[in-house]
From TrEMBL:
It comes from Triparma columacea. Residues 35-49 have a biased composition (Polar residues). GO terms for cellular component: cytosol. Belongs to the phosphohexose mutase family. Keywords: Isomerase, Magnesium, Metal-binding, Phosphoprotein, Signal. Its cofactor is Mg(2+). One of its GO terms (biological process) is carbohydrate metabolic process. This is phosphoglucomutase (alpha-D-glucose-1,6-bisphosphate-dependent). The keyword Lyase does not apply.
Length: 608
């Protein structure tokens, strides 16, 4: 036993001076234990959005401190934003399975273990993989006692050593954290001077991600628990959909084709569609997770979903090929399982049309009561607006970003009106409802399956044609110009903004430009104003309304993606191909924006 030695008066004086001295660090949280404290140098570029921080993988792999600093900054901000009675917190730590996820889970565990005053328990899914929708459901389940999530994902971006990696943060309602929180994380990251991390030499930090559910580990002062990633999510879906109806549909030999794109959505699709509902093995493709997504770009669209599209009898422009296999429904999810592509044999359903059809046939899908609210992102087509007006349902048009939908879903919680059950969707293949607070690729697949199961004699093409006959057709396409120079892209947007209020070009052609405006949004729940969310060019094309929208996307890891969205309404002609119908409008809009001069691009990278 060690004896206690009384400190000298000099030692006591030094200790008192140390305690009274102001901290040299401006960090929000002092190191929890000096044993784990390490000096660090702040980075100036760690500015996450609500979709997280995405960078080239090499930035994360070649400098381990890059991840360490971001997580410590996040924990510091999380601590200051949490009530003292709620700390320490339980946090979910999951990934979409992409390259660098496994070592990152180990690294983050060591940081949380050294910040046990902030984090008491880490919930880690078995195998480390969990789709983003499942993460949201997991947090929302009271059984799991989980307050937040760190999700290692770059969503639909490619994976691998030469591709992309990212970190995303979700809040206590399962929602992506808001911009105010991410801005705090950025500010903290720019002034961070110390962080806490468990040293491999001092502690056993080995975690077996393949261990049985319920296995626990101790890392520093934090408990790490291996959890079931499926249970809460499957339970949520079972409460929303009529699984017995869907099982019956599968048992009658109806076949679907589900493409997991080697992302996190694959295992969840196979678990629900295969193991539970009973669709056979030949209904699934690329449903095993791979670190590089099998070399594919895990973005479910006509370009990157080429094999699925071809097997459904379509070409890269969404036109019938006269070929294809006998599947009732074709669907794909992206890298983290929150996006979806829907098609039938010989027909591609645009995300905007998919949203409108689901709104119109809500009673075929859900037994949770009549639809009370719908919302779409501004660049999405107005197809759902027409449905909402006819049905007398509250309708909202928001900026792109799921947080705006989340505020509407939580309106009653935040002191406003109750809009739930609520349906929402965005142009970038995201669809969802108030069952969770993220878009949900598998949910959209089950919604379409429910429509077909209620009317088994109908095909996807029948459903879409009936919808157009009832409401008219909004021809729609999206042009993506990927990895453009940021300076040029921003100058193009500035140039368009400079046209507001000025005389518009008139050339006497088929495309009459009658308005240019910048989209701004006042959140009806929080009253926040979000400005400069895209430039809208409104046209008349042979007396029918049309528009082009220009936006810069913030989800890439390099440069800027310029997105041009094209839409034209037609109340009589439903049989055209969207890309062909909108080609002239796209050329005119690109000419007005002077896109080639600013970006150097003549053609888009992807057309969907």
């Amino acid at each position: 036993m060690k004896s206690w030695i009384s400190p000298s008066p000099f030692t006591l004086l030094l200790l008192l001076m140390t305690l009274l001295s102001p901290p040299t660090s401006l960090s929000l949280s002092m190191p929890s234990t000096s044993r784990y404290s390490r000096p660090t140098t702040a980075y100036q570029d760690q500015r996450p959005g609500t979709s997280g921080l995405r960078k080239k993988t090499k930035i994360w792999t070649e400098d381990s401190m890059y991840l360490n600093n971001l997580i410590q900054s996040y924990l510091n901000v999380l601590s200051t934003n949490s009530s003292p009675s709620s700390k320490p917190l339980s946090i979910l730590l999951a990934s979409d399975g992409r390259y660098h996820s496994v070592p990152s889970i180990a690294q983050i565990s060591k940081i949380c273990g050294a910040n046990s005053d902030i984090v008491s328990t880490l919930h880690v899914p078995q195998n480390g993989v969990q789709s983003t929708p499942s993460c949201s459901s997991y947090i929302r389940s009271p059984k799991n006692d989980c307050s937040a999530a760190i999700i290692l994902t770059a969503s639909h971006n490619p994976g691998g050593p030469d591709a992309d990696f990212g970190v995303k943060f979700n809040g206590a309602r399962g929602e992506p954290v808001d911009e105010g929180f991410t801005e705090e994380v950025w500010e903290e990251s720019k002034r961070l001077t110390t962080l806490n991390i468990v040293d491999d030499d001092d502690d056993d930090v080995t975690i077996d991600l393949n261990a049985e559910v319920g296995t626990t580990y101790k890392v520093g002062g934090c408990k790490v628990v291996i959890v079931d990633p499926y249970e809460a999510y499957v339970s949520t879906l079972e409460k929303f959909f009529d699984f017995e109806l869907l099982k019956d549909y599968a048992s009658k030999g109806n076949r679907i084709l589900f493409d997991g794109m080697h992302g996190a959505g694959g295992p969840f699709g196979r678990r629900v569609l295969g193991d539970i509902l009973g669709f056979k093995d030949d209904c699934f493709m690329r449903c095993d997770t791979r670190e590089d997504f099998g070399g594919c770009h895990p973005d479910p669209n006509l370009t990157y979903g080429k094999e699925l599209v071809e097997r459904m009898g379509l070409d890269g422009k969404g036109r019938k090929t006269g070929k294809g296999e006998d599947f009732k429904l074709g669907a794909a999810n992206d890298g983290d399982g929150d996006r979806n592509l829907i098609c039938g044999k010989g027909v591609f359903v645009t995300p905007s049309d998919s949203l409108a059809v689901i709104a119109d046939r809500w009673e075929d899908i859900s037994s949770n009561g009549p639809l009370k609210g719908v919302a779409r992102s501004m660049p999405s087509s107005a197809a759902v607006d027409v449905v909402a007006e006819k049905k007398g349902v509250r309708n909202f048009v928001t900026p792109t970003g799921w947080k705006f939908f989340g505020n509407l879903m939580d309106s009653e919680v935040l002191g406003g009106e109750n809009f739930n059950p609520f349906l929402c969707g965005e142009e970038s293949f995201g669809t969802g409802s108030s069952h969770i607070r993220e878009k949900d690729g598998l949910w959209a697949v089950l919604a379409w399956l429910s429509i077909l199961a209620r009317s088994p004699s109908l095909t996807v093409e029948d459903v879409v044609n009936q919808h157009w006959e009832k409401y008219g057709r909004h021809y729609y396409a999206r042009y993506d110009y990927e990895e453009c120079g940021s300076d040029g892209a921003n100058k193009m947007m500035e140039n368009l903004r400079g046209m507001i209020g000025k005389a518009l070009p008139k050339d006497g052609g088929d495309y009459e430009l009658n308005k240019i405006e910048s989209f701004s949004y006042t959140d009806p729940v929080t009253k926040e104003v979000t400005a400069n969310q895209g430039m809208i060019l409104s046209f008349l094309v042979k007396d029918s309304p049309a528009r082009a929208v220009f936006r810069l996307s913030g989800t890439g890891s390099a440069g800027a993606t310029v997105r041009m969205y094209l839409e034209k309404y037609d109340g009589e002609n439903f049989g055209g191909n969207s890309q062909e119908e909108l080609k002239g409008l796209g050329e005119k809009a690109a000419e007005i924006a002077d896109l080639e001069r600013f970006t150097g691009r003549k053609e888009p990278t992807v057309i969907t």
